[in-house]
Design brief:
The complex is a heterodimer.
Chain A lengths: L2 E5 L3 E2 L5 E8 L9 E7 L5 E8 L4 E3 L7 E6 L4 E6 L8 E8 L5 E4 L3 E5 L2
Parallel strand pairs in A: 2-11
Antiparallel strand pairs in A: 1-3, 3-8, 4-5, 4-9, 5-6, 7-8, 9-10, 9-11
Chain B lengths: L3 E4 L2 E4 L5 E7 L7 E6 L6 E5 L3 E2 L7 E6 L2 E6 L9 E6 L6 E2 L3 E5 L1
Parallel strand pairs in B: 2-11
Antiparallel strand pairs in B: 1-3, 3-8, 4-5, 4-9, 5-6, 7-8, 9-10, 9-11
């Protein structure tokens, strides 16, 4: 059974870069048919999809982030990473990683990690 | 981006009730519509995918229907563990987008 777990700093200063890692266990990220996504949930509960990476390394990012986001993968560590630059308080959220399969739904999800942007 | 609009934003119901949540897409998304259940402090969990397919392990009191722009999630015989927030999400196109959520509360 595949499990995902996010990790990274819980506090980031404004204008700095938010960096998170998603460690996948119970299965390899380096196989086809899966896209690995980052999703965030604002304190008001709205959900925003940030982007995904395919096992081949190809990526797609939400245009709303205006080029601030990068998603990468480290197959040797079975990890997916997220970098979000020039953060502001508006980037405060719980960040989730999730897998999208051929059924085109997000399953499973990590447990999420709260990132607060504050000086 | 495809806008997803849920209604109602919240509802109160009793154990044993039948509950219906509606999701409307801003354009046709065929049947590329998923429903998630989220409980406080937990990640969302898929309950219905592809508009009407029940995720493995999800009780049969959950059902989904619809195609095109209008979709519904129905919970019959509401159980205490069903009180949660439900989100719809389209997987028809990128970027993926979610509805704003419907909170199902105990009456």
């Amino acid at each position: 059974q595949v499990q995902l777990q996010e990790s990274g700093p819980g506090l980031v200063k404004p204008s700095q870069t938010l960096s998170l890692t998603c460690t996948v266990s119970g299965g390899s990220i380096n196989i086809g048919a899966y896209w690995w996504s980052w999703i965030r949930q604002y304190p008001g509960k709205g959900l925003e999809w940030l982007g995904y990476i395919y096992y081949s390394g190809s990526t797609y990012y939400n245009p709303s982030l205006e080029g601030r986001v990068t998603i990468s993968m480290d197959t040797s560590k079975n990890q997916i990473s997220l970098k979000l630059t020039s953060v502001t308080a508006a980037d405060t959220a719980v960040y989730y990683c999730a897998r999208e399969s051929a059924s085109n739904c997000f399953d499973p999800w990590g447990q999420g990690t709260l990132v607060t942007v504050s000086s | 981006d495809i806008q997803m609009t849920q209604s109602p934003s919240s509802l109160s119901a009793s154990v044993g009730d039948r509950v219906t949540i509606t999701c409307r897409a801003g354009q046709s998304i065929s049947r590329y519509l998923n429903w998630y259940q989220q409980k406080p402090g937990k990640a969302p969990k898929v309950v219905v995918y592809s508009a009407s397919s029940l995720q493995s392990g999800v009780p049969s009191r959950f059902s989904g229907s619809g195609s095109g722009t209008d979709f519904t999630l129905t919970i019959t015989n509401l159980q205490p563990e069903d009180f949660a927030t439900y989100y719809c999400q389209q997987s028809y196109s990128l970027p993926r987008t979610f509805g704003q959520g419907t909170k199902v509360e105990i009456k």
